[in-house]
Amino acid sequence: MKPVSVQAPRGVVMIRPHHFSPNADTAADNAFQSDDRTRTAKTIAAAAHAEVSRTAAALEAAGVTVHLFEDETDTSPDSVFPNNWFSTHAGGHVAIYPMFAPSRRAERRTDVIEMLKQRYRVQDVIDYSGLEQDGVYLEGTGAMVLDHLERVAYAARSKRCNDVALERFCTHFNFEPVVFDATDAAGRAIYHTNVLMCIGSDISLIGLATIENAARRAEIRDRLEAGGRAIIDLSHRQVGAFAGNAMELQGRGGPLLALSARALRALDDRQRQLLERSVEILPLDVPTIELAGGSVRCMLAGVHLSPRRSDRAA
Q: What Gene3D superfamilies would the database entry show (predicted)?
């Protein structure tokens, strides 16, 4: 078995929504969102609830610790994506983030943070959410894709990723910011970095064609390869199918890559074979969740914290 990598957490936090729906407040800058006019709102909500339940069960069966919280409210349509409002970091650090859409700010939950304090060794919690009052936003590990091994924070410019907030985070958490412009095939700015790239321990899936500046594109590729990673270059079509919205986790049998079934279907045989050299692929069927413009990576807030002794023994 490969040694455990700091890039691949053993645990995740997930939120199971009871009233899921694509968020009208975020549709303007999230071109990955879509509508389903063939089902009622009640049917869509029930399907999303079931998809989260199956995803959590599949991760637990693979040996990943899942902390599953319920959202029974009808005021947070995007609550299924907790990685946008908090992140955790080795050494016992937690960050809480400022959210662009007012309707998303209610997703922040004290019970999640308290659970982390009780189950894991948390030294401090840095809360950036007050920056919302100044119109400054940084939507967590949606806005940033973090290379925990090389200490680099990759970030595509958008309304949801402010340079000031990014610099502040990188200073506090010891990351180097690498900022770039990224657009989809229609020339629209991509709203979150984690839909175009995923960084694992030995591999990186990245839509290089989305990075507008050729020199910056080459620099980012070089940075990723310098860390010893194999690059899986995604086309615009594959990015649109959420092939970049994946996450490496530590399972019972070693590293695994959680991604959606749609994303896996979008990859070609060569790309899948390259992935399988480094990770076990765990496809998860979440078509209803993907209506909201995010996929499996967005559903998982990684726990990069050390468990307290009682939980380690358990």
A: L-arginine/glycine Amidinotransferase, Chain A (3.75.10.10)
